[in-house]
């Protein structure tokens, strides 16, 4: 067993851009609380590493193929991660998403790390389809998750009640150690509720361009409404993600947009401005943990249309701040869009409720304090 540094915290993630987008406020708060914070993951652009270093986070590269299943590549990832844990000697390893949970938990256990946090950001790709291949993947994941969740020094963070029930099913002894934290939070000072812009209303889907985000259904619904004479802009804002098994290519997106009258504006770096320019935010995703973009839409005071699926329905109580539709149902999605496009007063009422929910439940400070409480608990037990 290695000698762990008592205030050293190692995050393990799949990609630096995801950590910067979803966990950097937590890392900064941990540094302010006295932790020596490290991150092990892969990266796509050097700018990501620069952002981490400016925030005081020590970066360690671990090559990880998010959509890969090559045994040699997966073994390399595990060995590189184990080497990082041995060198950093953390008191707590905080694993985020599936592969980091599985490999990070195994390496931490082998090296005697006293505290482990496993953060489930939704059950993702393997749970988003009933196909035979996904069922096989779910069975393999179930066994791996059970091993990762079982040690008594492990805390499991989930983002919605459905995922809490799934973790308890996969590993019943872990049930008392599950903590529900509603997503990664949103900065209520960065996002403000503004009046809906005048002119043609914009229906916005801000997400990575994946099938599981409902991009195909969104474009189909937009095309149906445009052919029916609806006056609206339908906008896709998101990055390509070729490493993801559910990725759509640039060519596919361009063809969809051209055929259905949808605008694709690429990845947006200024979400407060983009949301302020929108009238309705739409995310017809198949399954989520708790999508950050919906928390941002709430903070920006926008009405939401999303799927009646885990994670999404936890942000949008039906009829209060938005509408829920069945996943994979472009016709019902179009009907919900039509309902909100035809009723500006309803959009205003639901937008106000979105902001109230953000202030009551989704502020980033609440999320940060919940995480720091878990770290304190693990440090005390160690």
Structure description:
- Helix content is 45%, strand content 17%.
- The chain is an alpha/beta fold.
- The protein folds into two domains: 5-184 and 363-381, Rossmann fold; 202-362, 3-Layer(aba) Sandwich (Rossmann fold).
- It has a seven-stranded parallel beta sheet with strand order 3-2-1-4-5-6-7, sandwiched between helices. Strands 10-9-8-11-12-13 form a six-stranded parallel beta sheet, sandwiched between helices.
- Helix 8 crosses helix 12 and helix 11 crosses helix 13.
- The longest helix has 19 residues, at 344-362.
- It is globular and about 65 Å long.
- The mean pLDDT is 93.
CATH topology of the largest domain: Rossmann fold
Q: Total strand count, please?
A: 13
Per the principal axes of the C-alpha atoms, what is the gross shape?
globular
- Hey, roughly how much beta strand do the residues contain? 15-25%
Q: Strand pairing plus helix content: what structural class? A: alpha/beta
- Mean pLDDT comes to 93
Overall tally of domains? 2
Question: The biggest beta sheet, please?
Answer: 7 strands, parallel
Output the helix-strand order.
Answer: EHHEHEHEHEHEHEEHEHEHEHEEHHH
